[in-house]
Design brief:
- The chain has 2 domains: 250 residues, Spore Coat Polysaccharide Biosynthesis Protein SpsA, Chain A (Alpha-Beta Complex), CATH 3.90.550; 56 residues.
- It has 13 helices and 10 strands.
- Strands 1, 2, 3, 4, 5, 6, 7, 8, 9 and 10 form a 10-stranded mixed β-sheet that branches.
- The termini are far apart.
């Protein structure tokens, strides 16, 4: 099979998910956009996944069986390392796609060449034995923590800083746009040297990977159509574990704090308010400290660290305020004068401002 820059490499790491894998792989091979390289890396110790691959019998599929279970992270790395197309779409094996999903993603990136990543609205579903939907839950419609600017009607280009801020500040963050189940320009990943984290998933490293990906671009794309479906168990839809209400594991919060402090200068240049973000960290650490569990002592130590960092930032802000206000006023005035031709012409006449 000949690959080119328009080929989409769909990578699907898996481990004993035969029940839903058939729906996953069928949704990929039946895509309207058919210029695909499909890579499956299997951690299973049986032939359940291989049997499904053989039934599908598609020459675009590359199946790789690991000799032993190398773990979720290594399995993702291995699958992505085999991707040779111009675009990458990494997905879980308990996810399936609308038939127009990859076509719409591809057309968006071709039309918006300055945007390296595009995602679409997703829905969480429960399937019966016939793999039909019996329950669904839409994250976007039910999540109350989104910045309203992100959800502006018909918004297709979203500022990265708004998405990063939402994940850093919210007590119950949700990834409206994720590294996974998004179409990403491979050259963008390589040129920015975006590394894969040590681990993925629930413990929060996926959040860091997503934010690190967003850090290198001003805007990302978003398609408001529901094109991606994640398969969940019935218990997931209990009121205590819905995305808008569930409790954040300590590791997730800690990984986001680590990401922030490692990239504090870049995030400040993007326009994120350090006082606002560090105050949110302080509040979250207080909440963790009040809950008696295995995270209590760790969260207390993080609470002290965050309080010290916030105090330092606040003192710096107070001391620089007298200088920053006149500078900001002068800069905005200068920009206004440059835009206004009449004032610029008048200024030239009195010889106190020269247009460059």
């Amino acid at each position: 099979m000949t690959l080119d820059k328009d080929t989409i490499s769909v990578v699907i790491p898996t481990f004993k998910r035969a029940k839903y894998f058939s729906k996953c792989i069928q949704s990929v091979v039946n895509q309207f956009y058919d210029n695909l390289q499909i890579i499956i890396t299997d951690n299973s110790n049986d032939n359940s996944i291989l049997d499904i691959v053989n039934i599908v019998d598609d020459n675009r599929i590359t199946y790789i069986r690991n000799t032993f279970n190398i773990g979720s992270n290594a399995n993702y790395r291995k699958a992505i390392s085999h991707a040779t197309g111009g675009y990458l779409f990494a997905m879980a094996s308990d996810v399936y796609l609308d038939q127009s999903c990859l076509e719409k993603h591809y057309q968006y990136l071709k039309k918006n060449k300055d945007i390296p990543l595009v995602s679409a609205q997703s829905e969480r579903v429960v399937l019966n034995e016939q793999l039909e939907i019996i329950h669904n839950f839409n994250d976007i419609q039910h999540n109350v923590f989104f910045n309203k600017k992100i959800l502006a009607p018909k918004t297709q280009n979203i500022e990265s800083k708004l998405l990063i801020e939402q994940m850093l500040i919210s007590q119950k963050p949700f990834q409206m746009i994720s590294f996974f189940e998004s179409l990403i320009n491979i050259d963008y990943l390589r040129s920015n040297k975006i590394p894969l984290p040590d681990s993925f998933g629930w413990h929060g490293m996926e959040y860091s990977l997503t934010m690190n990906t967003l850090l290198h671009t001003k805007k990302v794309g978003y398609i408001h159509d529901i094109l991606i479906y994640g398969i969940y168990n019935d218990v997931y839809f209990d009121d205590t574990v819905r995305p808008a209400n569930r409790y954040i594991p300590f590791e997730k919060m800690r990984s986001m704090e680590e990401f922030y402090f490692n990239n504090i200068k870049k995030l400040s240049y993007m326009g994120l308010n350090p006082l606002k973000i560090q105050t949110s960290f302080l509040i979250k650490n207080i909440l963790f400290s009040l809950k008696i569990d295995r995270f209590s002592l760790l969260s207390i130590s993080h609470l002290l660290k965050t309080f010290f960092s916030l105090s330092t930032t606040f003192i710096y802000f107070i001391f620089t305020l007298p200088f920053s206000i006149p500078f900001t006023i002068g800069l905005n005035l200068f920009k206004y004068l440059r835009k206004n031709k009449r004032l610029v012409t008048y200024a030239k006449k009195i010889k106190w401002l020269h247009k460059p």
